[in-house]
Structures are given as structure tokens and as C-alpha cells.
Write a structure and sequence with these properties.
This protein has about 110 residues and is of the alpha+beta class. Helix content is about 30%, strand content about 25%. It has a four-stranded antiparallel β-sheet. The protein is globular and about 45 Å long.
Length: about 110
């Protein structure tokens, strides 16, 4: 497993990890009170939010933790992400915007 800077290619995996990690979190009731009836709205909104993070590297830092699934073919799978607002770090604050672990990160990973 290793950590690297996220790219636009990671966007779908980040959204999937976020939704899997927070789908039943009570704090999600405020922005998405009808997420069970309209899951596509939650996914689209979440994707746009993270897209904005990735296109503003001067404002946000987004990292993904990856695991190689098949060493011979160099296939990787993103299993977690973290996103920071850089202005908070520059101001001396240690505010972590989000960090999420996918349930797939709990499965055994061959290294």
C-alpha cells in the first residue's frame, strides 16, 4: 500500500469511497436528506465537490491510499482518500477536511 497525490483519474474512486463511508452518517442528512430515494443526486453533488478540490491544487491537497491488486500487471485500487484545505494549514491550523476509509480497505491485501 502506498499514498500518492490524487488525479482526475481518481475522481470516481474517491466518490465511491466517500459515499460508502458516509452513506448512513447522520451528518449527511443535512445536505442529502433524500439520498436513499435519489442516490444519483448525492453521487453527482459529491463528484462535483471533489472535482473542484482536484482542479484547485492551490487551495486543496487531495491524496489517495492505493493498494496493488495484481503485482504482475501493476493494477492499483484506491482504498482511502484525504483532502485538506491548504489555507488552514498555512494559517497554522491542523484542520483535516475529510478522511475516509472504504470497507474494502478492511479486506486482506497481499503486499
Amino acid at each position: 500500500m502506498y499514498i500518492r497525490e490524487a488525479t482526475q483519474d481518481d475522481l470516481d474512486a474517491i466518490v465511491d469511497i466517500h459515499i460508502e463511508a458516509f452513506h448512513d452518517d447522520p451528518d449527511i442528512d443535512y445536505p442529502f436528506p433524500h439520498r436513499r430515494e435519489f442516490p444519483d443526486f448525492m453521487k453527482t453533488s459529491t463528484k462535483e465537490r471533489f472535482r473542484s478540490y482536484l482542479i484547485e491544487p492551490e487551495t486543496y491537497s487531495v491524496m489517495v491510499a492505493c493498494s496493488k491488486r495484481n503485482e504482475g500487471h501493476n493494477i492499483e485500487k484506491s482504498v482511502a482518500y484525504a483532502a485538506w484545505r491548504l489555507k488552514d494549514i498555512d494559517a497554522g491550523e491542523t484542520f483535516l477536511d475529510t478522511i475516509n476509509l472504504s470497507s474494502c480497505s478492511q479486506t486482506r491485501i497481499d503486499r
